[in-house]
Amino acid sequence: MRYVLSVFIVALVSSCSLKKMAVRQATGFFAESRKVFEQETDLELAETSIASNLKLLEAMQVHDPESRDLNLLIAEIYSAYTLSFAEDKMEEAEAAKKDAEVKRQQQRAKMLYLRARDYAGKVLLPRLEAESIAALSEKQLQEKLAKLDKDDISAVFWYAFAWGSSINVDREDTQALSELPKIEIMMAQVKTWDEAYYFAGAWLFEGVYFGARAEMMGGNLPRAKEAFEKNLKLTEGKMLITQYFYARTYCIFAQDKSCFDKNLQVVLDAPADIHPGQKLANALAKKKAERLKKRKADFFLD
Questions:
Q1: Can you tell me the distance from the alpha carbon of 229 to that of 211, in angstroms, rounded to the nearest whole number?
Q2: 189 within some domain
Q3: Which pLDDT does position 8 carry in this prediction?
Q4: Residues 240 and 278 in one domain
Q5: How many percent of the chain have pLDDT more than 90?
Q6: Last residue in a domain, options 152, 183, 214
Q7: Cα separation of 240 and 228, whole Å?
Q8: Which residues of 72-108 are buried (b: 16+ CB within 10 A; e: fewer)?
Q9: Exposure pattern of 228-266 as b/e (b: 16+ CB <10 Å)?
Q10: Is residue 24 part of a domain?
Q11: Is residue 22 part of a domain?
Q12: Structure confidence by residue, pLDDT tens digits, 2-38
């Protein structure tokens, strides 16, 4: 009996090991395969495909819950999916003045961003030796981040990006708004390690962070403009979503019509393959820019 039990335990352990091995091999495959999605120009096909693959990745994560690469891949793809499709549906509802649908899509985007944050947190929080970042003071967070190294850049970036984006889509959540300084601290650390990381994403985030709020709420238009321009320099203007957010945030809050027109026209006039590896992101930027251009009268006082 003892022998049979021993054989069963060995088989079970072997089975778990084989599952983990298979999951880790598949994670590498999915990480490479995302290039195919990033080059897709049919937005409907991309949305359906990415959503189905997300659920497959989550199913894989159940069998290897501590996998750094898998958790960060899921965080990244959930963040990209939410920005590309859930937020876009919210903006479509705003343009159509469908308030109930705006609220529904807003809450969905917020939920998905928080899901992305939590996957990144499975990697980041143990490295910070913290149960949650919300429980840390700003000083404590700075001290803990200072003990990390550049290998932690992905975990810090995706946690901050997803958390900050969840707050950005629901600015009525005053408790969440109070956490924005911590996200700024995290993005500052990312820039210290590598300011060009993920298409200079920390600079883009800073542009939106300071450009999408009134000064009394912590906005800073000169700083937002500087951040957008820094992102454009680092990306050589090949990521069109930057000009879209430039127009959507800074140009509107500054009430600068020429800035608004110029940035949107750059997006609309850019060749579809301006960045061959990011056709999906740029196709989405063009769609959003076209819709925003039609709504110009909604955003300017005269």
A1: 12
A2: no
A3: 35
A4: yes
A5: 71
A6: 183
A7: 12
A8: bbbbbbbbbbbbbbbbbbbbbbbeeeeeeebeebbeb
A9: bebbbebbeebbbbbbbbbbbbbbbbeebeebbeebbeb
A10: no
A11: no
A12: 443 343 334 334 455 666 666 676 676 667 777 777 8
Domain holding 78: CATH number?
Answer: 1.25.40.920
> Do 228 and 208 fall within a single domain?
yes
Residues spanned by the domain of 240? 195-302
Which two tokens mark 73?
Answer: 């891949």
Of 162, 183, 204, which marks where a domain is finished? 183
When the pLDDT of each residue in the chain is averaged and rounded to a whole number, the result is 89
Residue 61 or residue 116, greater confidence: 116
105-107-108 Cα angle (round to 5): 60
Cα 47 from chain centre? 16
- Let me know whether 145 and 272 are in one domain: no
Is residue 142 exposed (0-12), middle (13-18) or buried (19+ Cβ within 10 Å)?
A: middle
User: Cβ(192)–Cβ(184) under 8 Å?
Assistant: no
Q: What angle, rounded to 10 degrees, do the helices at 68-81 and 43-63 form?
A: 150
What pLDDT does 16 receive? Answer: 58
Q: Is 172 found in the same domain as 207?
A: no
d(CA 91, CA 97): 10
Q: Please tell me the distance from the alpha carbon of residue 139 to that of residue 260, in angstroms, as a whole number.
A: 38
What is the model's pTM?
A: 0.90
Q: Cα 140–143–146 angle (5° rounding)?
A: 150
Same domain membership, residue 280 and residue 226: yes
CA distance 272 to 286: 9
Give the model's confidence band at 206: pLDDT under 50 very low, under 70 low, under 90 confident, else very high: very high
Instruction: Please check whether residues 148 and 60 belong to one and the same domain.
Output: yes
| Domain total of the chain | 2
